[in-house]
Amino acid sequence: MKKRGVKRGKAVTVALVQMACGPNPAANLAKAMERIRQAARQGARIVCLQELFRSRYFCQTENDAHFSLAESIPGPTTRALAKAAAAAKVAVIGSVFERRGEGLYHNTAVVFDARGRLVGKNRKMHIPDDPCYYEKFYFTPGDAKPGFQVHALAQAKVGTLVCWDQWFPEAARLLALQGAQMLFYPTAIGWHFRDGPAIRRSQTEAWELIQRSHAVANGCFVCAVNRVGREGHLTFWGGSFVADPFGQVIAKASSHDEQMLLAACDLGKIDYTRRHWPFLRDRRVDAYGGLSQRYLEKD
Fold this sequence. Notes:
Blueprint: E1 11-18, H1 25-41, E2 46-49, H2 76-88, E3 91-101, E4 104-112, E5 118-123, E6 129-130, E7 133-134, E8 150-152, E9 157-160, H3 169-177, E10 182-186, E11 190-192, H4 197-218, E12 221-225, E13 228-231, E14 234-237, E15 241-243, E16 249-252, E17 259-266, H5 268-276
Parallel strand pairs: 1-2, 2-3, 9-10, 10-12
Antiparallel strand pairs: 1-17, 3-4, 4-5, 6-7, 8-9, 11-14, 12-15, 13-14, 15-16
């Protein structure tokens, strides 16, 4: 009997730029632009930067002075990303502290095609409020309709979700149902300096596991890019990775060093995986009405 194998499809090389950020936003931006150029020279077709790459992670405290870091879209950072994408002829996914209006701010992922055109943006939907992650002080949840949107690039259909969004399976599912082939998660997550080895290990394992589960449940590629380095009370754990449609990690970065992580993603694996593990086919959409409620209480 002939053994069934994966029929090869279109291969897309992605690059995840894992950086340490310093106190100078201009220097961080310049570093990111150089990394985009390097990724293109190494064959990348889509380049994704980490969450809020232009600055250090300022949400560790509630300080209204940090609002001065925000900018409009279009603005200086998005213009720089557009220019870098067009010059390198690669699609670029970035993360911006967006000033939408007076007193209205978002944590926004922007997507540029290889001609430097802004093809979409996704404002972070789930906003955490935890020690050293006081994001509700700074960011308003995204309010686009629909809330989760897929953007068509020449290379692939992509969905972008930002950090805390990565823990919610509903978000990944809604993007997959719109045809997303690749999910990108710009991230800033780390350990508190008081966390011991066991806690650190369990947190990083959970972080990777939940995102790999999105790849399995939806039969798509998942690309998560984190930062590295000590900032304030947090040590960012890096570990950027790419998982294939069956959740296998095909590329993974260091937990402590800056790194350009490249991975060749064979889009043919998506159809193959979904045909043999047809989770989307077998969903009981008639029985999921309760998902639109906060909590199901019995009388």
